[in-house]
Amino acid sequence: MTNDDHLQRLWAPYRMAYVRGAGDAPTEPDACPFCLMVAGERQTELIIARGWTCFVVLNLFPYNPGHLMVLPMRHVADYTELDAAETAELAAMTQRAIVTVRDVSAPDGFNVGINLGGVAGGSISQHLHQHVVPRWAGDANFMTVLGGTKTMPQLLEDTCGLLREAWDESDDAGGT
Description:
The protein is α+β, with helices and mostly antiparallel strands. The chain has one domain (20-171): 2-Layer Sandwich (HIT family, subunit A). It contains five helices and five strands; from the N terminus they run H-H-E-E-E-H-E-E-H-H. Strands 1-2-3-5-4 form a five-stranded antiparallel sheet. The protein is globular.
C-alpha cells in the first residue's frame, strides 16, 4: 500500500469502538451518570454548586485542572430542549464558573463549549453538558502529543476543594 498523500498516520484501532458508539451512556435517566449525581447516588463529591435548574461539576476525566461542566438537572440531550429558566441558569452558571476558575488558578484562556450528539464528540450525549476548560500557554506538550498521556499537576479532590471554596466565597459576596 502506498502513501501518496505524504501524510503520516497514527493508527489507533481501539478508537473504533468509541466511533461506533460502544460504551456510550444509556439513554434512560435512571442510568445516566449525571442524573445519578443529581439524585445523590454517584460522585456527588465532584459537584461544585447547585442552582434551581442546573448544577456545576468537576469533570472526572479533565483535560486540565479545573475542567468544569455546567449541566441542567433535567435529563435533556439538546440545547434547544432547555426551557427559558434552564437556558438562563446554564448561561449564568457558565459565567460564574469562568470567574471562579480565574480566581482560583488564573488561566490564560478558556475553551467553553457543548458537543451536541455523539458524532460531535459528546461522550455522554444524552444529557446536555457545557464544558468550561481552563487553558494555559504550553498546557499541551510532548507528553500529550507523543506519549498519549496527560500530566495533571493537581489531584481532583484538591481542585474540587479550591473551586468549591471560591464559589462559596462568591455566594457570600452576593455573586450569581
